[in-house]
Amino acid sequence: MSLKRKILELQKKREKVLQGGGEKAIEKQVAMGKMTARERIITLLDENSFHEYDMFVEHEARDFGMATKVLHGDGVIIGTGTIYGAPICIYAQDFTVAGGSLGLMHARKITKIMDHAMKLRVPLIGINDSGGARIQEGVNSLAGYGEIFYRNTIASGVIPQLSVILGPCAGGAVYSPALTDFVFVVDKISKMFITGPEVIKTVLGEEISMEDLGGARVHSEITGNAHFYAESEIECFDQVKKLITYIPWNNSKKAHSFEAKEPKIDQYKIDEIIPGNPKDPYDVRDVVRAVTDDSDFFEIQELWAANIVIGFGRMGGQTVGFVCNQPLVLAGVLDVDSSDKAARFIRYCDSFNIPIVTLVDLPGYLPGVDQEHAGVIRHGAKILYAYSEATVPKITVILRKAYGGGYIAMNSRHLNADFVFALPGAEIAVMGPEGAANIIFRKEIMGAEDPEKMRKQKVKEYKEKFANPYVAAAKGYVDSVIEPEETRKILLHAIEVSQDKVDRKPIKKHGIPPF
Amino acid sequence: MATKPKTSTKASAIKEEEVSKVRFKTLVINDVKYKTLLTEKFKNREKWEEPNLKKILSQIPGTVIKVYVEEGQKVKEGDLMMVLEAMKMKNKIYFPIDGTVKKIYVTENEKVPKKHLMVELK
């Protein structure tokens, strides 16, 4: 055979694999409103940047009539490419090939690209669209999942891992995304659960649709499993691409820096955003926009535990992670979910050399039997742990209220913050004036002729004496009381001088965070 | 698979333009009344009730296989009350305290959800 014919043969072989599961299966995929695996990769990555490997891998299953079945690429596509020039390792499960089911070779392809990502030290993106374990391959399929989970865990904190859920991802399969840094879901397309509606119905008699059990909205609003919610695959890919611009390729690099831009200060003025009365709400995201380059803020887990806000922005062209109490929702309290949300993000920023700016305005922890019984002690402790452990630059601005345990938790000086600033309206105290006065002056209030009048007077006294930033500043707990419009300038300086921060902790295998 | 199309589109927890219009609720923390929005999860949180041992609730959804007592019968703590099949297991349910069976709310072969009142003692 001449080389030319051999080339033709290769081209033919490629052609076949590129057909995936064949026309009918592709039609079905399209009918479900989904792109094919290859279309997804090509849409997500830079033009012509995708290079595929292991195209000709074949499964080795012999039981249950599998020996004669040809599964192109064994139901998964792996390769490398770039996003805005950033190198990426990627895999995408192909639902058109045996429902994207995971067999031994399918899993081997995934673990191969994961190993590549670790060696090359580049981000790994997984596109999940699979019916689950390939039952015909039995325990080999389970082995495959386990080997993926192990690699997810080892890669955690070394390279960014993104999971894009574009179809079913059920049973054991859900634990790979759960172990990765960011999970993307799309309305009506993503489905994630451990046990599906069928089993729930048979075993427990409870009837629920897939969408209501583990659809995109459920994981974005209720469970907190997902970080980004989109209405279409295209919107989802835009989110993935945008995220890639904010994060470094690996844990020994810094995120790519961009040209610095001024915020839109005519639109976002901190002194106009924050009401003087600490009981009044406002959207803390506007305060973030008042300090970030171009007033840009890329929020994460926007719909879940909205009483805390997390996300990325840039300051002076450099990525900054923001953690902010949100007075607009539940008065910005810390509770089980918001503690989990913030703690994980803090650890993400710490792993990937992203400075953390914390904006504080909270009345404390949320009271309630449900919270106590849900373990707000151990969940709340996560946020203390995450801040204390973090060695990236940690800068705090106390915007208004900072009461009690909430004050300590929100990256206070006491947890080894690098800089703590406070606006003049800040109230740093053990609790709100009303509560404090009721306790401290109980006798005076009870014994007064007009207790209500006395209470008001005592609250006023307490407010004047303690509801300010100066008591804390007098002890050095606050480094500087600043004017609202200076905030950006001061944050920029704090980040700049912290560039080469070194904070060595005692050598240990690892800590024991209150998981 | 049948999925209900949801009417709401991408709902940011709070849309910016809503901030000025929204009707805020009150949340009291340490005697301070805050104006704020409440989340669905907060609104739907389970109210705590003091456990009442006389009202025996199902701990897990399942099927009542057999009931071993009758109304009016005197029972002792640890007596077998019923077998509830759940998760393919036949679970024996025992009386938690001494008493007299006031009412039985379930019948054999009945499917019960979680926290369903099954038997009441007096």
Question: Would you give an account of this structure?
Answer:
- The complex is a heterodimer of chains A (515) and B (122).
- Chain A is of the alpha/beta class and 515 residues long.
- Helix content of chain A is 40%, strand content 17%.
- Chain A is built from 21 helices and 17 strands.
- In chain A, strands 10, 11, 12, 13, 14, 15, 16 and 17 form an eight-stranded mixed beta sheet that branches. A seven-stranded mixed beta sheet of chain A has the order 1-2-3-4-5-7-9, sandwiched between helices. In chain A, strands 6-8 form a two-stranded parallel ribbon.
- In chain A, strand 11 (308-315) and strand 12 (318-325) form a beta hairpin.
- In chain A, helix 13 (336-351) runs parallel beside helix 15 and helix 17 (433-440) packs across helix 19 (451-466).
- The radius of gyration of chain A is 26 Å and the shape is elongated.
- The termini of chain A are far apart.
- By secondary structure, chain B is mainly beta.
- Chain B has a domain at 55-121: RNA polymerase II/Efflux pump adaptor protein, barrel-sandwich hybrid domain (OB fold (Dihydrolipoamide Acetyltransferase, E2P), Beta Barrel).
- Chain B contains one helix and ten strands.
- In chain B, the strands form three sheets. A four-stranded antiparallel beta sheet of chain B has the order 3-10-8-5, with no helix packed on it. In chain B, strands 7-6-4-9 form a four-stranded antiparallel beta sheet, with no helix packed on it. Chain B has a two-stranded antiparallel ribbon with strand order 1-2.
- The radius of gyration of chain B is 23 Å and the shape is elongated.
- Chains A and B meet through helix 8, helix 9, helix 14 and helix 17 of A and strand 2 and helix 1 of B.
